[in-house]
């Protein structure tokens, strides 16, 4: 009788452990923050990628057009995957692509641009990552679509794909 009771306790305990494990596996631990539409772009000064001179955000976003801000790095594998789509988007005259090079070695970043092409009308350096955080980025790559009123209307976390590129094209029409 004592052995049956011990067996019952062990089986109950294992069922309990299995239930907790099963529930834990079904709950996603990926955090996707909610994005508030029409967030203002930050006001900032940053170093230009090519000239190494400081530029003001008011100068960068002075034209009356849509903007795409893409946060990228040469060490970022998904950045390589999305780069051809950024090159395609850069051909659209109604949008201006702004690159934000995130915590990168400048020589490696320049090699990346020379190898894959430069889709950016303006490319900025973000050595500390603070400017990316001001935009609301959580990682690399991230892409922000900014309307003519200088408000962020869409945020893409991770690399853009064909579907995201089509969505961007619809927004900037």
TL;DR of this structure?
40% of the residues lie in helices and 24% in strands. The chain contains six helices and eight strands; from the N terminus they run αβββαβαβαβαββα.
**CATH architecture assignment:** 3-Layer(aba) Sandwich
Along the chain, the helix and strand elements come as HEEEHEHEHEHEEH
Mean pLDDT: 90
User: How many beta-strand elements?
Assistant: 8
Tally of separate domains: 1
Number of helices: 6
Main sheet? 8 strands, mixed
Estimated structural class = alpha+beta
What would you note in describing this structure?
With 173 residues, the chain is of the alpha+beta class. It has a single domain, classed as Glutaredoxin. Helices cover 40% and strands 24% of the residues. It has six helices and eight strands. It has an eight-stranded mixed β-sheet. It is elongated and about 85 Å long. The relative contact order is 0.18.
């Amino acid at each position: 009788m004592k052995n049956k009771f011990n067996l019952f306790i062990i089986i109950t305990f294992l069922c309990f452990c299995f239930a907790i494990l099963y529930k834990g596996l079904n709950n996603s631990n990926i955090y996707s923050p909610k994005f508030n539409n029409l967030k203002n772009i930050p006001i900032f000064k940053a170093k230009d990628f090519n000239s190494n001179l400081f530029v003001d955000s008011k100068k960068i976003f002075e034209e009356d057009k849509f903007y795409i801000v893409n946060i990228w790095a040469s060490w970022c594998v998904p950045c390589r995957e999305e780069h051809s789509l950024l090159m395609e988007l850069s051909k659209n005259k109604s949008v201006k692509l702004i690159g934000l090079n995130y915590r990168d070695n400048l020589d490696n970043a320049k090699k990346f641009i020379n190898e894959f092409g430069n889709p950016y009308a303006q490319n900025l350096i973000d050595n500390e990552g603070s400017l990316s955080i001001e935009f609301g980025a959580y990682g690399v790559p991230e892409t922000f679509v900014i309307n003519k009123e200088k408000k962020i209307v869409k945020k893409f976390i991770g690399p853009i794909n064909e579907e995201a590129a089509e969505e961007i094209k619809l927004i900037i029409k």
